[in-house]
Amino acid sequence: MAKKLKTEPGTKVVMDEVEMNRILRRIAHQIIETNKGTDNLAIVGIMQRGMPLAKRLAQFIEQEEGKPVPLGALDVSLYRDDLSQKGKYVEVRKSDIPFSIDNKVVVLVDDVIFAGRTARAALDGLKDYGRAAKVELAALIDRGHRELPIHPDFTGKVIPTAMKEDVKVEVLEVDGVDRVVIK
Question: Which domain CATH number covers 139?
Answer without folding.
Answer: 3.40.50.2020
